[in-house]
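Intended use. Records like the one below are meant for learning the mapping from a protein sequence to its folded structure. Do not use them to infer anything beyond what is encoded.
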Amino acid sequence: MVNNKRQRCGWPGDDSLMVRYHDEEWGVPVHDDRKWFEYILLDAFQAGLSWKTVLHKRDAFHEVFYGFDPLKVAGMSEKAMAGAMANPAIIRNRLKIRAAVNNAQAFLRLQETHGRFDDYIWTFTGGRVIQNSWKTAEAVPARTDLSDTVSKALKQQGFTFVGSTICYSFLQAAGVVNDHLVNCFRYRELTEK
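Structure written out for the chain above:
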């Protein structure tokens, strides 16, 4: 059930799944590589679509993409990719499905070279959360210098579907950036941690 008495960011609306995601997950610092891979995969599928669309298909993505295990996704066969393309429970986009496999392979290569992905991605902020203080949703940018830098670095590592806007989305989701509005109850909770 949605608790509408709390002041929160406006983007979840009154969708209970979106509200739960906002209240419990979005902006919480991530330090788990599988969770990082999940965000990269899901945000690539979001390109051109709403997060609500992706979030409501998240369980199906979890099933199709082996619980977001990058090792298993990296090894997806042509037959498995064709099966994903035929599955109406996910977003059926051939380029995005191929990008998921490619990005899993790039993710594994990056781990071999740099250790954990988590250690690598947090180097872009020196291991600290960027605490923004936006007062309105209109003030929150779609991309920043940080996301430009991360996007360029990931592309150099062989990732695809990691433009600056997509990177900013997963940096927000994974708590590298705190973009909850200052009047949102989560802003205060996450800045106090």
